[in-house]
Amino acid sequence: MTWSADLLDQLEFYWGFHFRPRLAGLTDDEYRWEPVEGAWSLRPTGPGGALELEQLQPEPPVPPVTTIAWRVVHVGRDVLGKRARAFFDPAPADADMYDDRHWPAAPPGDAVGALALLDEAYGLWRSGVAGLDDEAMLRPLGPRGGPYAADSMAKLVLHVNREVMAHGAEICLLRDLYRAYADRRDPVVAAALRGDAAGVTAALRAGSAGVDGVRPTLVAEAAGLHHWDVVRALVAAGAPIDGALHYAAGAGELEVVTLLIEHGADVAAKDDTFGLDAAGWAGYFGHPDVAARLTPTST
């Protein structure tokens, strides 16, 4: 086993495929959103009103729910950043991997700054681990490991991987909950996602923005949920249809596929995940008739 390569590959795959792309579009409101009363977040309790993570030592028996801000800063600064500087940029010399002097800057109060912190810390940790050989991986942490001085670097890397994955999953769940919270406040979106085509039409008529206010992915989202009457209602209203064709094709909905093509859907467009066009989705999910409809014929 090549410790550094295999363990780093585990983290890199999770970071690049599962976690970091899910943070695209993070807003300040979402970053600081408190899903329940009493949630731990960033508070201006530091020197001069600097932001700090809410936390207590010892930890309460049932820790409070934390915000995205809390989790992102914890992962970036505490899980990755401090440890990267403790072992790969060892200054100050008398500080173990928990010492705040490794990352003295106050946590960022905005989403852009938080993602920059996360990316910087990940880059430092990743490059440090990439430079370790198997012998270094099996070497004890020593004084910089604090109470875990006798543990190997490999054990720490495994722990960091677990921490990033666990907190990353929690951050992604909080994003899902925030989206659901925001969706309920938009009558068009709320009706579309529950499959209420009549409600979609009524909400569009009642809203001042009309179809111009519909989010660009809503038709594709409705298609992904197989809410075909909602798709028809949104298409009839002139909503953007990008991405919907793949889902209709994959579900074998020939009539909806035809409707989307008639309204300008690009049959040659490929999805970002698998690199397939809509005909490819139809073929993969066992709908040859739909695939044939989507395949250009030569003359």
TrEMBL record:
SUPFAM superfamilies: Ankyrin repeat, DinB/YfiT-like putative metalloenzymes. InterPro entries: Ankyrin_rpt, Ankyrin_rpt-contain_sf, DinB-like, DinB/YfiT-like, Multifunctional_regulatory. Residues 54-171 form the DinB-like domain. ANK repeats lie at residues 244-272. PROSITE patterns: ANK_REP_REGION, ANK_REPEAT. Keywords: ANK repeat, Repeat. The keyword Transferase does not apply. PANTHER family: ANKYRIN REPEAT AND SOCS BOX PROTEIN 2 (PTHR24189:SF50), MYOTROPHIN (PTHR24189). This is DinB-like domain-containing protein. It comes from Jiangella mangrovi.
